[in-house]
Amino acid sequence: MLMSISGFLVGVVSCQFGAALPAPSCQFAAAVLAAGCGLAGALLYRSSRERWPGLALVLSMLAGLAAGYAYAGWRAELRLAQSLPGDWEGRDVAVTGIVATLPQNFGRGVRFVFEVEAPAGGAVPRRISLVWYRGADDDEAGLLGEVHAGERWHLLVRLKRPHGNVNRHGFDYEAWLLEQDLRATGYVRADASNRRLDAFVLSPGTLVERLREVVRSRFQAALPDGRYAGVLIALAIGDQRAIPQEQWSLFARTGIAHLVSISGLHVTMVAALCAAVIGAIWRRVPALALRVPAQQAAVATGAVAAGGYALLAGWGVPAQRTFAMLAWVALALLLRREAAPFRVLGLALLGVLLLDPWAVLAPGFWLSFGAVALLFLAGSGRLAAGGRIREALRAQWAVTVGMVPALLVLFQQCSLVSPLANGLAIPVVSFVVTPLALLFSVFPLQILADVAHAVLGGVMLPVEWLGGLPYAQWQQAAPPFVLALMATLGCLWALLPVGTPARWLGASMLLPLLAWHPARPAPGALKMTVLDVGQGLAVHLQTAAHDLLYDAGPAFSADANSGERIVLPYLRAQGVRRLDSVVVTHQDNDHAGGAEAVLGGIPVAEVRSSLPTAHPARLMAADRHLPCRAGDAWEWDGVRFRVLHPGAEADADRPRKTNNLSCVIRVDAAGHSVLLTSDIEASDEEALLARDPGALASDLVLAPHHGSRTSSTPAFVAATHPAWVLFPVGYRNRFHHPNPEVWSRWSGAGARMARTDAEGALEVRVDAEGVQVEGARAVAPRYWYGR
Fold it and tell me: What are the φ and ψ backbone dihedral angles of 753, each rounded to 5 degrees?
């Protein structure tokens, strides 16, 4: 059975990470192969398993693999069939439907999933993600009102197909939308026809979501200024949106992020508590105990309680896995069958994959199942059990060491203080804070919320101290798959029981992973990546031994920006631990919005900018700041950088159009040149042509002002005459960049063109072989891109 389930997992993974879905004929052939291999394996196992044990296992594995591949492909085709027609993008559409999930408030409005019942024209997918913005004035803001789970609304919306930023090793928003069955995104238009039709539409899903909303409101009312109120909400209902980014950073540095989500430990604790209560009552009622043994009744009740808590908590993968395991244990006990740990884990894995074959795309899937497998491995094969403390230390050691490869692959970092932080936090959070939070959810007594918050604040004091240690966290570039697989196998070997031959050799297999560094450009060469940050700009330039960041992308809201969400994770994945220079070209949000997060998240040697003196990023730079002025130049590793604009007369503190202060830099490497233009406009291009027209000729140009019609004049295009032009633009951005005339102008000059909204992050290599450009969507294609 375990071999078949393992094969099923491999089949699902091979389909989900493929560039294209298998054709229907391939899916049918895989299903036939699965049936044939399964039947042959079963017959062989019954009749001749002693003679051909290996062959039976291989057939079982092949049957599972083919079945997983066919099943994942079939489910994906069904889901992708729900799509918004391309010509419906940007069109106003009237829809009637139900608010299907817990609404998420943010500074500019509210975000929610809308289950469409009656779209105009019938072409809108069944589930869509909507944002309802607050207006700029009171009249428009008043249209928003309050949105609650389970309400039925008639809305005028504007939609687009699923689309997200694509950067190598970055979060794949389109994959997340696919897993959540959200086949279009959009926003509510300000219109008089928007109205609430029903205050509540009863269904199992809306009932759960409304209950979650009630519990969240209780916590928000009880702890309006509570520092850890968001953590308590997450522990009670799995809603993590209210946890500030700085707390997430601390949890990552200390390795306790799993404790602030609905982990398997919390679900198990709730199930155990309910089972203990029912078991105690059952034993004291002879009529009940004579009908059903108390142990069976307790376990069945615990499984039901786990399912209820998992639903209340948002039905995440860890909760699904725990509920499935407890359900299988309860079923085995009721049927008086053996409940072997790895068999139960395998059945839970199969249940999760059948329910959600896209779960393998989420880091939580691998971390949840991997951690439980490591715990089972650490506890198996022991001839004598140790004390509770010794067993707890062994379990913590197994999880800490065994999860290192997965954490480095998924997040490029792991905590070195995790054993200490978890040793302090696990008992308190799991057995004190979480029960108090759940009790407050049922019995909204202020004292319960206050005590839970106070206890959590107390345990976080030593955790914060641990997180502040200089070497609390190990950071590593995203490793190759081969090294990660070798390290994983080595960890598993090292965690086998004492007496296993050469366990030290398994531990040593971690060393190549920890010592690996990605290749950097050769001296004189340049690697440049135009990150996909939406409608904004962030460019990473790397030489043999130096790194420069040219702009840091936009701020999306008061608590979210591309510096934190895109730039820093990208730099970490590339193995960049410090920046030699950050250039903030001007103060517009789409260029400087992520600068503060970058300056606070990675060591930076110098900052060049045309920012005004009171700008927060310039204040953070302090004495590291240098003005961006034409004529400045420097050389790194045989690569020359020269500032061409703004001129010496520019003054960032004088009222002036900010685009005219944009820092323009020319980079010369390996006999080729790159021109970074930021947001210069026609007047700035004219000034550059007058100052030094010969300095503009380039092999690659970053299109001025994202391809706006106010830039890229014919004279500038003729003077630069590039082989490549790159456009950093957002998908269906409201400025309609790049302008069609500008696009045609560059194309008419013979340039090849690429754009981030269509191709993802653009990686440029400049060396002796010339200038090469690759898009992230082409480097690692996925079947859901563009669908």
Answer: -130, 150
Whether residue 76 is found in the same domain as residue 41? yes
- The reply to whether 68 falls in a domain is yes
CATH of the domain at 591: 3.60.15.10
- Rounded to whole angstroms, the Cα distance separating 573 from 578 reads 13
Q: Hey, what amino acid is at 524?
A: G
Among 51, 80, 109, the domain boundary falls at: 80
Residues 631 and 692 reside in one and the same domain: yes
Is residue 322 within 8 Å of 310, Cβ to Cβ?
A: yes
E strand or H helix that includes residue 91 = none
Residues 418, 400 contacting (CB under 8 angstroms): yes
Query: What's the CA gap between 178 and 181, in Å, rounded?
Result: 5
**How many domains, in total, are found in the chain?**
3
Whether residues 15 and 157 fall in one domain: no
- What are 629-662's pLDDT values in tens digits? 999 999 999 999 999 999 876 665 565 689 999 9
Angstrom distance (rounded) from CA 305 to CA 321: 14
Among the listed residues 578, 583, 587, 527, the one whose alpha carbon sits nearest the alpha carbon of residue 551: 583
Domain extent at residue 93 = 86-201
Residue of 265, 20, 213, 262 whose CA lies nearest to 105: 213
Instruction: Please indicate, yes or no, whether residues 55 and 178 belong to a single structural domain of this protein.
Output: no
Residues 6+ apart with CB under 8 A from 133: 108, 109, 144, 187, 188
Query: Is residue 138 predicted with pLDDT exceeding 80?
Result: no
Q: What is the pLDDT of residue 140?
A: 44
272 by DSSP, 3-state: which? helix
Q: Are 544 and 521 in contact (CB under 8 A)?
A: yes
- Bridge partners of 158, per DSSP, are 92, 187
> Is the domain of 57 the same as that of 97?
no
Beta-bridge partner residues of 115: 98, 127
Phi, psi of 169 (to 5 degrees): 70, 15
For the chain, the maximum distance between any two Cα atoms, rounded to a whole number of angstroms, is: 99
CA distance 729 to 530: 11
The overall pTM is greater than 0.70: yes
Q: Tokens 């993590």, residue?
A: 240
Asked if 10 and 101 sit in the same domain, the reply is no
Burial class for 106, CB neighbours closer than 10 Å (0-12, 13-18, 19+): middle
Q: Does residue 189 lie in a domain region?
A: yes
Residue 12 in domain = yes
In sequence order, the β-bridge partners of residue 770 are 767
Question: What are the tens digits of pLDDT across the range 217-227?
Answer: 999 999 999 99
- 545 and 573 both lie in a single domain: yes
* Angle ∠(281,285,286) on CA atoms, nearest 5: 140
Among 17, 46, 80, the domain boundary falls at 80
Percent of the chain with pLDDT strictly greater than 90: 64
